[in-house]
C-alpha cells in the first residue's frame, strides 16, 4: 500500500505542471459542444417557422435572396476546371496565351478617349497631348475629318464625318469593338477640357468595377424629366465596362430614334431610355469635382478650394491657357506631395521615439532607407572625389578626367540645391552665396540613392550688410524615385538562332571540344539552332591551300557530324585577311542570310547550351535591343589548385573564375539591326576601311544603331582557361582589352599571392 501511495504521489507530481492545460482543454470542449447544440436548435426553429418566405430586398436579384451571389458576381467566383483528355482522340499541344494577364482574364484599368475636330487638332489636341496624355495608360484621339498631317506622337482615329452625333456614335462603337474586353473604365473628354490625370486614375481605383456607372457632371435635360440627368461632355465622364457592354446593342436604335444637337445629351438620353441609368456626380463616397472657367481667368490666381479639387476644368479656349492650367495644377500637386512628406516624417519621428532604439533610430533623411552597412571590406562602397572642373574616378580607369556632360550637370545642380537649402533654413538672418567648391564626394548606395558630401566656401551676409567667408560641410541625398517597368516588345523562345563561329589557325586545338558540345546541347536536343563556320586564312596559308589546307581537320569533323545527323548541314565560309575584324567578318556573313536572322557570334572557347540560347532569344529584340553577354572565365588551374583536385565535382562551378568584362567576343543581334547600323557607319567613314580595324560590333551598335545595348553577366556561358593570342595588328584599344583579359584571367589576388609566397619560400630554401 505504501508503494502504491508513493507511485500515486509521483504520478500526481508529474501531472501537476500539465493540469492547467488539461483543465483548459476540457472547459473549451464543453463550451463548444453547448454552443453547437444551441446553434442547431435555433436553426431548426428558423427552418420550421410557419408562414411565407421573407421577400428579398428591393432591387436584389432572386439569387441574392436565396443566399447565392447574383449574376454580376459570377466573374469573381473561383472555378476549378478538372483536366480530362479523351483517350480516343489524338493528343494536341495546348496553345497558351502570350501573357498570363490574358489567360487569367485581367483587364487594364483605364482607357481615355479625346474628342477633337479638324479645326482644333493642331492646337487644343496637341496641348492635351503635351500636358496629360503621357500620364494616362492609354489615350486615343477621335475626330470626324483629319488634316493632311497628323501631329507627331498622337494616335488618331478619323470617322470621316464631322457631325457631332455621328462622331459620338462611331466613337462608342470603336471603343467597344477594339477595347471593350481589355479595360474596366472608359473616360471620354473633349480637347477643350483639362483633366487632372492623377486624380482621374485615383478615382477609378476606388470604384467597384461590378456596377453600371455613368459618372460626371450631372446636367438637366432642357424641357425633360426632372429626375433624368446627362453628363456634360465638356467636363468629361466615366463609363464602366459593364455599362458599355449593355449599351452597345442599342446604339443603332439610339442613332435612329433619338434627335439631339449635343452629342453628350444624345448619349445621356440613350443610356436613360434603354438602360434606365442616369448620370451621377458621386458614387461610393467618391465625388466627381469640376470647375467652370470664366472668361479671362488667371489660373495662377485661382485659390478657391473648388478649383484645387477639380478633376476636370472647362472650357479651355486656347493652348496657352491649357499649359498655364497644367503648370498651376502641377504646382498644387507638388505642394500636396511636399506637405504629405512632412506629415509622414513627423509621424515617423513621433513613432520612432517609442521604439527601443529611441530617437537614435531615426535615419537621415527621415523616411529614407538607412545607408548600406557592409559586412566585409569587399562590400564597402567607395566615394568618388570631384571638383567643379574634374572627376577623379573616371570610367576609363584614368586617375583624372574633365567633368562634362551629365556628370557636370549633376554637380552643378547639387551645388545649387545645397545653397538653396541653406538659404531656406537660415533666412532672413543670413543669406549665403557660393564662392567655391572645396571638395566634393559622391557615391551610389543601391538601397537609397546617390549620396553627396560637399565642402563649400560660402559668403554669409547678415541683414545689416555685414559679410563673412566661411567653409561649411553639407550632406545631400538624391533618393531613388518610383521604379518604372519599361514596356518591351513581345518575344518568344521559338526563334531560330544562327551561330557564327570565326576560326583562325590558333583556334584549331579547341574546335573539337566546341563541336562536341554543340552537338550534345543543340543537335541531340533538337534545339532550333544552326551553325556556320568562318575560316579565316592568313594570306600565306591561303596561297598554299591547294597543297596544305590548315582547316582540313575541321572540315573532316564537320563531315562526320553531317553523317551522324543526316538532317543537319553545317556550311562554312573562307575569308583571307591579316586583321580579322569583327565588322569585316560580319559584312560577309550578313549578306548570306535573310534580314530576320538572329545571329549569335560565338568564340571557339564557348560551350553553347540550351539555357543560354533561350536567353539569347529573349534578350535580343528586333529593332529594339541587342545582347552582349559577359561570359564566366575560369582561372588557370595550375595557379588555383596547384596540383590539388579541381572543382569539377563541386556544385559551385562559378567559384574559381570571374566574369570577363573586357571581352566583347560574344553577341546576339538581328541581321536587320546590323545592316541598319552598318549603313550609318558606311556613311560616316566614307570608304575608309582602315577604321573598321579599330572597331568591334559593340562600338558599331553603340554609336550607330540607336538601340538598347543589354550588357549583362551570363552564367550560362562558362569558358575553360586558355591563353588567348592577341593580334597586334588590331587597334590599340582592342589589343589592350585582350591583354587585360589574359592578365585578369590568370587567378584571383589571393591565388596569385599564395603562388608568389610559395615561390619565395622555394627560392629561400
From TrEMBL:
Q: What's the main place this protein lives? A: Golgi
* EC class (word): transferase
Q: Which Enzyme Commission number(s) are listed?
A: 2.4.1.-
What domain of life does the native source organism fall in?
Eukaryota
**Topologically, how does it sit relative to the membrane?**
Single-pass type II membrane protein
Example GO molecular function term? glucuronosyl-N-acetylgalactosaminyl-proteoglycan 4-beta-N-acetylgalactosaminyltransferase activity
Report the protein name in the record.
Hexosyltransferase
Biological source species: Vireo altiloquus (Black-whiskered vireo)
Amino acid at each position: 500500500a505504501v508503494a502504491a501511495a508513493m507511485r500515486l504521489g509521483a504520478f500526481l507530481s508529474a501531472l501537476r505542471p500539465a493540469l492547467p492545460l488539461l483543465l483548459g482543454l476540457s472547459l473549451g470542449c464543453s463550451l463548444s459542444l453547448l454552443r453547437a447544440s444551441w446553434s442547431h436548435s435555433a436553426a431548426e426553429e428558423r427552418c420550421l417557422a410557419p408562414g411565407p418566405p421573407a421577400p428579398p430586398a428591393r432591387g436584389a436579384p432572386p439569387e441574392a435572396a436565396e443566399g447565392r451571389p447574383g449574376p454580376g458576381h459570377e466573374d469573381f467566383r473561383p472555378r476549378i476546371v478538372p483536366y480530362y483528355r479523351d483517350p480516343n482522340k489524338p493528343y494536341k499541344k495546348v496553345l497558351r496565351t502570350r501573357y498570363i494577364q490574358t489567360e487569367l482574364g485581367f483587364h487594364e484599368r483605364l482607357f481615355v478617349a479625346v474628342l477633337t475636330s479638324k479645326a482644333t487638332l493642331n492646337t487644343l489636341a496637341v496641348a492635351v497631348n503635351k500636358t496629360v496624355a503621357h500620364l494616362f495608360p492609354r489615350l486615343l484621339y477621335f475626330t470626324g475629318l483629319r488634316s493632311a498631317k497628323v501631329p507627331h506622337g498622337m494616335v488618331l482615329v478619323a470617322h470621316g464625318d464631322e457631325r457631332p452625333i455621328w462622331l459620338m456614335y462611331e466613337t462608342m462603337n470603336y471603343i467597344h469593338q477594339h477595347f471593350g474586353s481589355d479595360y474596366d473604365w472608359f473616360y471620354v473628354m473633349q480637347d477643350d477640357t483639362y483633366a487632372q490625370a492623377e486624380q482621374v486614375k485615383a478615382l477609378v481605383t476606388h470604384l467597384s468595377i461590378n456596377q453600371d456607372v455613368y459618372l460626371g457632371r450631372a446636367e438637366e435635360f432642357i424641357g425633360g424629366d426632372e429626375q433624368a440627368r446627362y453628363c456634360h461632355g465638356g467636363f468629361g465622364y466615366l463609363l464602366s465596362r459593364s455599362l458599355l457592354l449593355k449599351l452597345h446593342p442599342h446604339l443603332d436604335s439610339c442613332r435612329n430614334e433619338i434627335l439631339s444637337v449635343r452629342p453628350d445629351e444624345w448619349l445621356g438620353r440613350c443610356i436613360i431610355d434603354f438602360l434606365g441609368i442616369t448620370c451621377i456626380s458621386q458614387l461610393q463616397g467618391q465625388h466627381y469635382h469640376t470647375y467652370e472657367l470664366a472668361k479671362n481667368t488667371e489660373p495662377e490666381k485661382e485659390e478657391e478650394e473648388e478649383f484645387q479639387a477639380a478633376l476636370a476644368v472647362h472650357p479651355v479656349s486656347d493652348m496657352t491657357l491649357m499649359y498655364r492650367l497644367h503648370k498651376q495644377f502641377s504646382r498644387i500637386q507638388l505642394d500636396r506631395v511636399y506637405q504629405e512628406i512632412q506629415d509622414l516624417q513627423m509621424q515617423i519621428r513621433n513613432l520612432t521615439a517609442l521604439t527601443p532604439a529611441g530617437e537614435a533610430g531615426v535615419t537621415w533623411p527621415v523616411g529614407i532607407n538607412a545607408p548600406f552597412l557592409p559586412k566585409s571590406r569587399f562590400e564597402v562602397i567607395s566615394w568618388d572625389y570631384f571638383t567643379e572642373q574634374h572627376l577623379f574616378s573616371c570610367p576609363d580607369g584614368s586617375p583624372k578626367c574633365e567633368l562634362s556632360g551629365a556628370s557636370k550637370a549633376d554637380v552643378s545642380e547639387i551645388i545649387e540645391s545645397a545653397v538653396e537649402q541653406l538659404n531656406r533654413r537660415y533666412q532672413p538672418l543670413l543669406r549665403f552665396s557660393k564662392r567655391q567648391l572645396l571638395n566634393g564626394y559622391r557615391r551610389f548606395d543601391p538601397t537609397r540613392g546617390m549620396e553627396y558630401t560637399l565642402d563649400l566656401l560660402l559668403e554669409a551676409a547678415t541683414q545689416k550688410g555685414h559679410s563673412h567667408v566661411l567653409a561649411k560641410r553639407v550632406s545631400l541625398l538624391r533618393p531613388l524615385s518610383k521604379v518604372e517597368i519599361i514596356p518591351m516588345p513581345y518575344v518568344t523562345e521559338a526563334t531560330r538562332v544562327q551561330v557564327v563561329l570565326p576560326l583562325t589557325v590558333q583556334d584549331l586545338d579547341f574546335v573539337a571540344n566546341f563541336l562536341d558540345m554543340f552537338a550534345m546541347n543543340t543537335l541531340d536536343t533538337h534545339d532550333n539552332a544552326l551553325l556556320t563556320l568562318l575560316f579565316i586564312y592568313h594570306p600565306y596559308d591561303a596561297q598554299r591551300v591547294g597543297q596544305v589546307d590548315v582547316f582540313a581537320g575541321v572540315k573532316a569533323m564537320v563531315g562526320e557530324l553531317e553523317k551522324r545527323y543526316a538532317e543537319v548541314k553545317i556550311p562554312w565560309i573562307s575569308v583571307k585577311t591579316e586583321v580579322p575584324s569583327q565588322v569585316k567578318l560580319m559584312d560577309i556573313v550578313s549578306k548570306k542570310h535573310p534580314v530576320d536572322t538572329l545571329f549569335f557570334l560565338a568564340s571557339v572557347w564557348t560551350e553553347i547550351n540550351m539555357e543560354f540560347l533561350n536567353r539569347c532569344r529573349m534578350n535580343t529584340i528586333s529593332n529594339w535591343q541587342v545582347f552582349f553577354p559577359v561570359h564566366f572565365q575560369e582561372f588557370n588551374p595550375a595557379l588555383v589548385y596547384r596540383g590539388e583536385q579541381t572543382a569539377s565535382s563541386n556544385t559551385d562551378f562559378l567559384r574559381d573564375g570571374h566574369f570577363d568584362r573586357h571581352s566583347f567576343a560574344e553577341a546576339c543581334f538581328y541581321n536587320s539591326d546590323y545592316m541598319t547600323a552598318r549603313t550609318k557607319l558606311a556613311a560616316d567613314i566614307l570608304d575608309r576601311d582602315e577604321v573598321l580595324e579599330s572597331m568591334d560590333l559593340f562600338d558599331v551598335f553603340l554609336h550607330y544603331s540607336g538601340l538598347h545595348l543589354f550588357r549583362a553577366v551570363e552564367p550560362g556561358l562558362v569558358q575553360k582557361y586558355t591563353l588567348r593570342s592577341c593580334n597586334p595588328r588590331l587597334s590599340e584599344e582592342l589589343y589592350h582589352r585582350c591583354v587585360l583579359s589574359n592578365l585578369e584571367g590568370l587567378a584571383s589576388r589571393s591565388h596569385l599571392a599564395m603562388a608568389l609566397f610559395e615561390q619565395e619560400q622555394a627560392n629561400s630554401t
